[in-house]
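Action item from last meeting closed. Structure (507 res):
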């Protein structure tokens, strides 16, 4: 396996190029090539990330300062979910935070204490000082904090096109990845069923040993050439369409340090603030809302759309390939599959899969069978658990104001694994042991913030007086730390401006 090719650029392709380029940077026997169409623009919707991306970018040797400056980056500390619960019960514009800082990290788990005594305070506010920092529009770190380190947990919002360009520059200049601009017309198959070569419009026939499909929804290699079936998940996840738009902002507008996800009668709206614009997407089920209704509701969200912004519609084919590795081909990114971008799952799954592939890349064709089984097993498990977590947002909501929310509660739309977990958590709050696999993309912390942000009713046994006393003290300590951090941390835009002017301290 000496000649590796990645078909497709964008975030997925260039993430893969960096992972593999780093892996084989000092191995002259192996070449990594990326073929990118000069005519096909990337989808460019994925502008949110999760905290693991910090470790990835640092491992690539990319300066956080350069990244922030080059990619219109802002910090993301949370997803703020607005109106995901019944307005009559929880108030108009009810909200909760899915924070990136671990809950209860200064002592014992506060979840049982909150379930018994926390009615007057939001779950995230009791268990983490980050809730208050987000609400006060604070940054997760100071200008003197070293690159990729933070006082609070964080990820990023970014310009996806500029991010791909930064990754391309790093892969080519630092890892020796070869870059070819060409349109791949089709794949030529070997008699064994593996891919033998690519037929391109500009460069003719190009043969490689191993092929990585990052061709997006088209899935040119794994889907079209190798005929790996697509498994739809539209029965579990009902949204299938999105209207997207970029909304210009003013230089001094406040930048929320979180993604805003606002639920509506047939889906939800993402709102991501970069330094000079907002990326907004109206996600909906076309079975529950017409395109015209969706357009009107997005107009209303944008206060009538006074500047006449044009919306781009993106159809969502929800699901994933039956296999992610077949013969000498692996798919990544949208070529693997697609889920609504509710928890920044696309970049997360791509980064995870590309790193996992690079870690155990086959040295010869004889090794591919065993590694293929391993990769497909792990990625299949990861996709299923991500689907569980996305579905959780809908099925535990107490909204009943439309058929969309009622349909999401139907038993036949809820995966069996999620049903079993929810049944357990009716009587016990989640424990780390409930998430036994390290391939749970979302695990203990994530479920706690979502379950109890949405007031899931876990009926626990009585608490010991010893635990109650310690938990009360722990909660007070978190409250005190919140006040201290709000005094210490700079405002979000303030820090972004300082980074652009001075830069962060290099590691």
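Sequence:
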């Amino acid at each position: 396996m000496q000649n590796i090719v990645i078909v497709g650029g964008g975030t997925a392709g260039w993430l893969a190029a960096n992972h593999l380029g780093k892996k084989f940077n000092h191995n002259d026997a192996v070449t990594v090539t990326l073929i990118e169409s000069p005519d096909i623009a990337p989808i460019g919707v994925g502008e949110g990330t999760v905290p693991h991306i910090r470790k990835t970018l640092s491992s690539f040797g990319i300066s956080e300062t350069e990244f922030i400056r080059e990619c219109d980056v802002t910090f993301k500390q949370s997803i703020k979910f607005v109106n995901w619960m019944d307005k009559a019960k929880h108030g108009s514009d009810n909200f909760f935070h899915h924070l990136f800082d671990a809950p209860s990290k200064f002592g014992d788990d506060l979840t049982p204490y909150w379930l018994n005594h926390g009615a007057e305070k939001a779950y995230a506010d009791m268990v983490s000082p980050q809730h208050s920092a987000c609400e006060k529009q604070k940054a997760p770190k100071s200008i003197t904090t070293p690159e990729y380190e933070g006082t609070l947990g964080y990820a990023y919002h970014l310009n996806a096109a500029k991010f791909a360009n930064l990754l391309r520059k790093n892969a080519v200049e630092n890892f020796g990845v070869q870059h070819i601009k060409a349109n791949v017309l089709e794949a030529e198959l070997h008699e064994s069923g593996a891919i033998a070569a690519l037929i391109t419009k500009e460069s003719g026939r190009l043969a490689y040993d191993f092929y990585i499909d990052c061709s997006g929804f088209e899935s040119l290699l794994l889907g079209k050439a190798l005929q790996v079936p697509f498994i739809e998940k539209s029965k579990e996840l009902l949204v299938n369409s999105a209207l997207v738009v970029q909304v210009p902002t003013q230089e001094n507008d406040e930048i929320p340090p979180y993604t805003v996800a606002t639920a509506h009668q047939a889906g939800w709206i993402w709102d991501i603030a970069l330094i000079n614009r907002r990326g907004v997407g109206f996600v909906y089920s076309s079975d529950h809302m017409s395109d015209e209704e969706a357009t009107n509701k997005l107009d209303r969200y944008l206060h009538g759309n006074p500047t006449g912004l044009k919306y781009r519609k993106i159809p969502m084919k929800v699901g994933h390939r039956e296999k992610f590795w077949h013969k000498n081909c692996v798919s990544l990114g949208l070529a693997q599959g697609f889920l609504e971008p509710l928890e920044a799952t696309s970049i997360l799954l791509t980064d995870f899969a590309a790193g996992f592939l690079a870690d155990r890349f086959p040295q010869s064709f004889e090794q591919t069978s065993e590694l293929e089984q391993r990769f497909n097993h792990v990625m299949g498990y990861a996709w299923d658990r991500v689907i569980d977590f996305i579905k959780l947002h809908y099925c535990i909501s107490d909204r009943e104001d439309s058929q969309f929310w009622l349909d999401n509660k139907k038993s036949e739309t809820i995966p069996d694994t999620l049903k079993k977990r929810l049944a357990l958590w009716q009587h016990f709050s989640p424990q780390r042991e409930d998430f036994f696999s390290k391939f749970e993309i979302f695990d203990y912390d994530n479920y706690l913030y979502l379950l109890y942000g949405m007031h899931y009713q876990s009926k626990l046994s009585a608490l010991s007086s010893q635990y109650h006393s310690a938990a009360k003290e722990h909660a007070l300590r978190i409250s005190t730390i919140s006040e201290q951090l709000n005094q210490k941390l700079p405002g979000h835009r303030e820090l972004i401006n300082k980074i652009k002017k001075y830069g962060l301290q290099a590691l």
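Note appended to the action item: The chain is about 35% helix and 20% strand.
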